[in-house]
Amino acid sequence: MKQQSAKLTYLKLRLPQRTWPEKVRRQRRSMNTYYSAFHFLILCLLLLINAPASSKCIIDTLPGFPGTLPFKLETGYIGVGEKDEVQLFYYFIQSENDPQRDPLILWLNGEPGCSGFSGLVYEIGPLGFDVEAFDGSLPSLVVNPYSWTKIASIIFIDSPAGTGFSYATTSQGYINSDNKTAEYNYSFLRKWLLNHPEFVKNRLYIAGDSYGGKIAPMVALEIAKGNEAGLKPRMLLQGYIVGNSRTDANKDDNEKVPYAHRMALISDEHFELANSSCHGEYVNPDSENIQCLYALQLVKECTSHISENHILEPKCKFMSPRLNISQPVQLSLEDDPVDLLSLSKKKSIYGAANYDYVTSYVWANNETVQEALHIKKGKITEWKRCNKSLSYEEDVPSVFEHHQLLNEKGFQALAYSGDHDMAVPYMSTLKWIRHLNLTLDEEWRPWTVDGQIAGYTMKYKNKQAELTFATVKGAGHTAPEYKPKQCFAMIKRWLSLYPL
After folding, report:
1. CA distance 467 to 461
2. Separation CA 368–CA 495 (nearest Å)
3. pTM over 0.90
4. Residue 145: is the preceding peptide bond cis (ω within 30°)?
5. Domain of life here (predicted)?
6. C-alpha span between 152 and 21 (Å, rounded)
7. How many H-runs (helices) and E-runs (strands) does the chain carry?
8. Is residue 440 part of a domain?
9. Is the C-alpha dihedral spanning 250, 253, 255, 258 positive or negative?
């Protein structure tokens, strides 16, 4: 009887639902639709509130380039900092090969304060300027056949704030340091990957040259710690790449005297006098050591008119705009390119190789170019390839420990050096590598491209990690700029896990 009573009650409750008129049913469906739409709007609002502050645009054409770009270019801003007060601008170029499987590289330029565009257009990106045709008007762009984007997707970032097109909404946002730059670059990458989830599963490498090579291992270590702490998204960091990189300013600069001797810029007698009297300390000598000071003066007299960024090039900036060092002649196309554009027609007189850096200044400050790149108006007054007036504190004297920790954690590393660079000599890179106490896996040997020696390489390893060192023969401070074909072969082999 209890079962029957329960059944009858159930029937009584169900009967009214089956006898509701059509009008009521329509009203119920309408209300359900309304509530569903309302919940959807609330969800969208929550996602919008929690989404990373960013903007991005796909660029199909660029002023100076004929037709449609033969690669996928995206530009945008990503906000970092407590209140997104720092807006970091970036150029993203998708791999021209297999973007789903090819690695993702975050590229950092140096100084600090040099735009990622410099790395894009002068070193490893798919475009370059037609310098021979440059007459002071809008420069023409040409395809770089040795772009690293043929094998990898690359993010070129303007970092820190005040670099390139990046800006801050507060004065505090323009106060930069090593630690802050590394932290913000990591924050940038996290937000970028949240906006580009299709690249979360790609192998990731952090790369940089010059001062960017100092920041690169710092960012890599931030990523490693973030992964260990369970921060999202988890990044598939494989390793890092540094080129003629700053590691420890004093130790890097201390190798300039031995390098000058090795490259026959100073005599045996000068070097022996400096070495014996200064006891190997050339950067901060004892002010009371008269013999050491005299020896260093002899060294200076022999090297002061040598271009540190490439010892075979003319020193003056207006002669060779690749250089970024103080000049005996106070003329600089980078500091005042408009007034000196006429010099581009006199390069044979001055013996200059080209005026590449002037072309970037003219191109990037063009209004139609900035519109094409979707640059926010009124945020910067003038684009500079390298901003030399940044407020920047070098609060990390040495990143040797960062290299050490990354190696202990099992990350792969490539350290390459243009062998004609005296700004950060290859000898200083080799010195910190040897102090990592790794096992030498491959002895010093030549590596070749098209049957010709492109440089020399060694490989070190421990139980988990490998570190490859390579010189690039004939290259200067920014090796891919001088030897693009050889550097493309180098990175292609290394990323493919092939021997150089």
Report:
1. 6
2. 37
3. no
4. no
5. Eukaryota
6. 64
7. 16, 16
8. yes
9. negative
Average pLDDT over residues 410-417: 98
Query: How many domains is the chain built from?
Result: 1
∠ CA 292-293-296 to the nearest 5 degrees? 85
Token code pair at residue 220:
């890599």
Q: Which of 91, 207, 139, 61 is nearest to 354 (CA)?
A: 139
Establish if 371 belongs to a structural domain: no
- Two tokens at 375? 């640059």
The CB density around residue 74, as the number of other CB atoms within 10 Å, is: 16
Inter-residue contact 88 to 77 (CB < 8 Å): yes
Q: Are the beta carbons of 478 and 324 closer than 8 angstroms? A: no
Q: Three-class SS of residue 37?
A: helix
Range of the domain at 229: 54-250+394-495
* CA 386, 428, 455, 411 torsion-angle sign: negative
- Please write the tens of the pLDDT for every residue from 26-65: 555 555 544 444 444 443 343 344 444 567 899 999 999 9
pLDDT tens string 237-292: 999 999 999 999 999 999 999 999 999 999 999 999 999 999 999 999 999 999 99
Residue 253 near residue 281 (C-beta atoms within 8 A): no
First to last CA, the chain: 88
* One-letter amino acid of 331: L
Length of the chain equals: 500
C-beta atoms surrounding 72 within 10 Å: 16
Would you call 470 helix, strand, or coil by DSSP? strand
Q: Active-site residues: which are they?
A: 210, 421, 477
370-379's contacts with Cβ under 8 Å and 24+ in sequence apart are: 372/59, 372/61, 372/62, 372/63, 373/59, 373/62, 373/75, 373/165, 374/55, 374/57, 374/59, 374/75, 374/76, 375/89, 375/165, 376/77, 376/87, 376/165, 376/167, 379/87, 379/165, 379/167
Using CA atoms of 225, 229, 230, 234 in order, give the dihedral in degrees to the nearest 10: 0
CA-CA distance, 477 to 422, in Å (whole number)? Answer: 8
Give the confidence band of 316 by pLDDT, cuts at 50, 70, 90.
Answer: low
Rg of the chain, C-alpha, whole Å? 28
Under 8 Å between Cβ of 222 and 182: yes
Task: Let me know if residue 428 belongs to a domain.
Answer: yes
Please check whether residue 393 is in contact with residue 178, taking contact to mean a CB–CB distance below 8 angstroms.
yes
The CATH number given to whatever domain includes residue 488 is: 3.40.50.1820
Per-position DSSP letters for 67-121, written without gaps between them: SS-SS-EEEEEEEESTTS-EEEEEEEE--SS-TTTS-EEEEE--TTTB-HHHHII
Domain-located, residue 122: yes
Question: What count of other Cβ atoms lies within 10 Å of the Cβ of residue 279?
Answer: 12
Q: For 351, left (φ over 0), alpha (ψ -120 to 50), or beta?
A: left
- Give the DSSP H or E segment for 65: none
Give the 3-state secondary structure of residue 406. Answer: helix
Six-digit token string for 34 = 């309304």
